[in-house]
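Contributing: when you submit paired examples, paste them exactly as shown. First protein:
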Amino acid sequence: MTEKTPLALIIFCLTLLHFTAPAFTRAEEGHTHPPVSQEKTKKKKKEPLPPIKHTHPKRPHLHEELQQIRGWLQSIERDTERRPIISEEERTDAAMYPVQTSTKTRLSGGLTMIAQGALNNAAQFGGDRADGSLSIDLILESELRENGLLIVRGDFMRGEGLTHLPPLAAGVNADIESFTDGPDSFHLIEALYEQTWDKERWRFSFGQIDTTSYFDQNEFANSETFQFISPLFGNNPAIGWGGDENGYGPGFVFHMHPVEALEFNLGLFEGDGNYTDMFDQPFLIAEIELEYYRGDLEGHYRFIFWSNETNRPEILNPSVNASHNRGFSLSFDQALTEHFGVWTRFGLQDGKVSEFDRHASLGLQVKGLMGRSHDTFGIALGTTWVSDENKQATGLDKEEHTIEAYYNLAATDGIHFSPDVQYISNPGGDGNVDPITVYGLRAQLIF
């Protein structure tokens, strides 16, 4: 039965009333009653009541009443189609508990296991050995209101990875986080709210934020779970990131995309990420992004200016706390063909408070080798310079050079395996340490 059935039924009843009403009207006008059987009269044993004079107000014709009722019912149906009728309690629940009442909530994540070994590693640093790590990332996303998104990201880690190595500019495994309570525990990475306007041309985010998730992006060198494993190629090591030692902390990000091919990102974060004396010594960062399209081929050119106002000791004068570390960096990536792209990064920071004050890297990515459309190959070269102040303090006199290559094999939907190799010369800028080779295998499950 359709939604129009109640209206049709009411119209039918009123039409029936239209044909039967005249008899009752005539009875009322003559003050008479319908005939009653003799048997019923005897049972009731009631005397007839004296006639009562009735006065009826003038009413519109029944046809007019029918038309009024029809219009009233149709207006109710139209209003019901426009907005669902919900109780006041449901309205309160939706306002106070949007996550519980939202149907646009998604849980996703990934499981990553990395095993790495070292070759030609001096005995004083642990010798040739192999170690591993496992991490599980969980991401909860819930659309609380139109264009308003709650994001919560957590990470569980097991194992410290390959740590028995010479001192390096940035390590060999970017999937390893540094936490005071150790690796075998669950950690809150992000808990933020993101609101967008005007088809995502404007976006504002606040909460616990991973600073690297909004700045220094790169299409071909930005994910330690799919691309390069070395931290040198995931983000620029010459940026003095705010937040804790991993770059996580409270802050605000404002994104603007006023015209096509031009974007701005502005960020304000707590300098050390510990929620104490918040924003007394902040980390400020601004990024300008230019987009270039050549047909379907996309390129991004990002220029970054930043300042970390957290006090830190100067390398040559440890008793003096410098009030800032400032710098500039860039991150370029450009697709040259459907399967081939190149990228580069450069950055510099204040050598008075930084052991390494400059970094440059470049690389390429190739998709679809050997006829496998979902496989990816990447190779990169990076150089990190020891600051002059650090050279004077430690005697280090070389630049650290790193080469990394990986092949990401898509075994099946959501499962990837990536053999990886890194070659590091002058580890930590020390020319007296022999080059080392780090080989590894990464297994990734996406869910």
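Second protein:
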Amino acid sequence: MESLSNLPLWLIILGVILVLFDSVMKLIALWKSARNNQLAWFICLAIFNTVGILPIVYLVLNKQKAFPQDD
């Protein structure tokens, strides 16, 4: 089994960046789903680790306009 010290530096940096990206996206999606009282989304986001795909899908599908338009 290969240890981390034998891996190339760029591969370690890439792994750290991917882990940080996944963590940030997951936390944002969990926070927004909790604020919107969407229990099913919250549970799915908390259980499934999809390397940032599920949180991005949730954020794209449930984005709200920052400034509502006056009608």
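If you have annotations for the second protein, write them as plain sentences, like these:
Residues 17-61 form one domain.
The chain is about 65% helix and 0% strand.
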